[in-house]
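Retry 2 of 3 after timeout on previous attempt. Resubmitting structure tokens to design endpoint.
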């Protein structure tokens, strides 16, 4: 508005507001007074909203790297003189030499690898120039080895499986019999079963799309169309439908089905604090429950519940 503001919306003074109201009432300027009051209240609402957003931003939890504790401590150093403390620097005290601590400290050491993994031994021999004794010049012999294990991987290789279908013939007549074609995921398909199973696992367990798998095959010099691999994966899924149907029947045929909701924090920049509470629903089939406990249930009710669930 074009008139003089009543008071500051950031720090309103009640005395100024009272004096202004008395002035407006004495001059009978009621329309101007109502207009100014409405504009002043609207401005205070805007200021209050801005301050609320700033307060929420300051209270929002941030990673430790954004707290700037070190810089805040440095800002306090120039204030020592203003606080009336000693301006002269104290004499540095002689520092006692401390023994250097070992980098190992209390480290538990490297954990052992699983025993079921095969061990591939790679011999690391001493170079020929270092096998000569520097004292007598005699060639030294092997007395032992120190073992060091590292986890390694053998990359997968693409091979062409050439199936040789045998044909047998009778030496006495013209009878010829060929070996029957073994069952396959895709009959007369271009891709073998092992590759299709691997592609299905990569897609649904490792979340690797079919197009990226074809790109990986192309780096090895093999062109596989995404449509071909996609149809093969779909055929593999069709073969697994009876298993999924059986799991669905066993899940829905139970006498008791339990559910639970667990709250988890979810990042959301749209809320004030930047974090909201989400929900994760868990479903449990009573057929797979191996233990039941309730603080308010007696032994008879637990026994009846067990008989109903397990059919005993």
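Retry 2 succeeded. Sequence:
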């Amino acid at each position: 508005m074009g008139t003089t503001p009543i008071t500051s919306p950031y720090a309103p003074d009640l005395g100024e507001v009272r004096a202004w109201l008395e002035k407006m009432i004495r001059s009978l300027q009621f329309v101007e007074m109502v207009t100014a009051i409405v504009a002043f209240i609207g401005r205070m609402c805007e200021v209050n909203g801005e301050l609320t957003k700033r307060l929420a931003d300051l209270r929002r939890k941030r990673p430790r790297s954004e707290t700037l504790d070190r810089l805040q401590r440095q800002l306090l150093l120039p204030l020592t003189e203003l606080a009336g403390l000693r301006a002269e620097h104290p004499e540095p005290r002689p520092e006692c030499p401390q023994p250097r601590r070992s980098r190992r400290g209390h480290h538990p050491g490297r954990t052992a690898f699983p025993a079921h993994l095969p061990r591939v031994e790679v011999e690391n021999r001493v170079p020929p120039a270092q096998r000569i004794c520097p004292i007598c010049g005699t060639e030294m012999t092997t007395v032992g080895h120190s073992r060091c294990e590292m986890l390694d991987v053998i990359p997968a290789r693409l091979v062409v499986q050439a199936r040789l279908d045998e044909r047998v013939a009778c030496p006495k007549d013209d009878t010829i019999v060929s070996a029957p074609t073994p069952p396959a995921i895709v009959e007369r398909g271009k891709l073998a079963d092992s590759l299709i199973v691997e592609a299905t696992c990569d897609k649904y367990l490792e979340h690797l799309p079919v197009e990226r798998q074809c790109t990986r095959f192309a780096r090895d010099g093999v062109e596989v169309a995404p449509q071909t691999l996609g149809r093969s994966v779909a055929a593999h899924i069709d073969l697994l439908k009876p298993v999924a149907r059986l799991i669905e029947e066993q899940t829905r045929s139970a006498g008791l089905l339990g559910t639970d909701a667990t709250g988890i924090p979810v990042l959301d920049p749209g809320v004030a604090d930047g974090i909201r509470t989400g929900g994760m629903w868990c479903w449990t089939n009573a057929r797979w429950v191996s233990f039941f406990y309730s603080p308010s249930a007696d032994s008879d009710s637990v026994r009846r519940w067990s008989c109903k669930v397990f059919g005993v």
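Attempt log closed. The first strand starts at residue 167 and ends at 169.
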